[in-house]
Amino acid sequence: MNFEQAHAAWLADHLRRRTGERRNRLERGHAHAEKLFARNVWWELKGSFDHLHPEYEVSDWRGRPYFADFCYKLGRQKLLIEIKGYAPHVRDQDRRGFSMELSRETFLTGIGYTVISFSYDDVSEQPDLCITLLKLVLSNFEPHALSAEPSKFAEKEVIRLALHLARPIRPIDVEKHFGINHRTAVKLLQNLTRIGKMRPFKIGDGGRVLSYELVLRGQNILYLLA
To answer: What is the pLDDT of residues 182-225, one digit of tens each?
Structure first.
């Protein structure tokens, strides 16, 4: 099944299960930008629309309905995805509208949603960047998908830890994070050094290695997690 067939079947299924304003909103709201994201980003990354809901209704802090462009639901985890064009979200938005948007996103985060946004320009012109960023976010939702490559998953987790620490990472940091022994922690750091994603900090004349730092190529962190 190609994209057009899968997209049409997915949309028809959601339309069939909706009535009233929820159905009307889907018919009106899932337009060019949303379909572009579905094709350029989601389909390229996932190859299906399983667990993805278009024009997903939630309530804001006032109890008023709000429709997010997409919601990805996997178990108890819920990811809201918005596609934002420059004109309606920046140029044409007044100060009150801007404040309300920020309050809504904070409220949704507070009640358990993860909220992310992509610009229409990036979806249209830089879909590979959107795919990389979305893949990074989804890795927090789908750890089971990485079980086929446990060593690669562990290396990415070490990189995430180093980014959180914002300083050179030590074997003891890895030991505590994973609950592993010193030898295994050092091996993980050495593997990342071998593939060029970390470099050792050597101390003193003997060149003893006590910590490691991330290697940034052109200040681009994303390549570390690719």
So the answer is: 999 999 999 999 999 999 987 766 678 889 999 887 667 777 77
Would you state the pLDDT for residue 144?
Answer: 53
Domains and CATH numbers, the chain: 3-143 (3.40.960.10), 149-225 (1.10.10.10)
Q: Are 42 and 78 in contact (CB under 8 A)?
A: no
Closest CA to 33 of 104, 118, 101: 118
Amino acid at 48: S
**146: confidence class by pLDDT, cuts 50, 70, 90:** very low
- Tell me whether strands 113-119 and 77-84 are parallel, antiparallel or unpaired: parallel
Q: How far apart are CA 47 and CA 158, in angstroms?
A: 28
Closest-CA residue to 58 (of 29, 93, 17, 22): 22
In the block, tokens 């007044």 appear at 94
Instruction: Report CA-CA distances (Å) from 6 to 2, 13, 43, 108.
Output: 6, 11, 9, 30
The whole-angstrom separation of Cα 37 and Cα 34 is: 5
